Amino acid sequence: AGVPVCDRGEYGWARFIEHSQCTSLDEIRQAYQRLGVLLAALHCIAASDIHFENLIFDGAHPYAVDLETLFTALPKPVEGADWIVGVVGQLQLEVLISRLSAEYKVEAKLEASPFATARWVRGDAKALAEFEKFNLSTLAKDRDGDLVFMAKSPWDVNYQQEKNPDLTFSATKER
């Protein structure tokens, strides 16, 4: 279940979400499963400010609210000069552009990245250096300085895992 959005062209609003309790044990199970998926997705993009006041349940459907902190920029890629902004959906990009303009008087243009997924890469220094040498255009460092491989498809991830058995490719990262 998605949240209906009022699109006003240059800005938009999401509908008010009223808290409602689950009405059965099955709904409670669904709510916790959906919450786990939501939290995993938020963790993958290094979201912050996710606490009980920013989670609302409409029955078995959890929603994260006040998501302005989702705009997590990865530092510059290992090779190249463009910053990468990771968000969950298109609306967040539109809000980012609007806020940059209105609050900071900064005009920004965002282009879609060719990457579909990312994996944190770990291993010994020699294996990492060899991997970096051949994959500079698809690497970035996260806000902690850890190496991130950006892939255009799951096939790219599987290929690199097979080609680099001494490295670990993780979809999530412990903090």
Secondary structure category: alpha+beta
Q: Name the beta content range.
A: 15-25%
- Low-pLDDT runs of 5+ residues are none
Query: Taking Cα atoms only, what radius of gyration do you get, to the nearest Å?
Result: 19 Å
Main-sheet strand order equals 8-9-7-10
Termini, distance in Å? 30 Å
Task: From the structure above, extract its key features.
21% strand; 175 residues; two-stranded antiparallel ribbon; 4 helices; 4-stranded antiparallel sheet; globular; 32% helix; alpha+beta
3D structure, described in words:
- The protein is of the alpha+beta class and 175 residues long.
- The protein contains 4 helices and 10 strands.
Outline the secondary-structure elements.
Blueprint: E1 5-7, E2 12-14, H1 25-44, E3 55-58, E4 61-64, E5 72-74, E6 84-86, H2 90-104, E7 117-122, H3 125-135, E8 139-141, E9 147-151, H4 154-163, E10 168-170
Antiparallel strand pairs: 1-2, 3-4, 5-6, 7-9, 7-10, 8-9
Short description:
The protein is α+β, with helices and mostly antiparallel strands and 175 residues long. 32% of the residues lie in helices and 21% in strands. A four-stranded antiparallel sheet has the order 8-9-7-10. Strands 1-2 form a two-stranded antiparallel sheet.
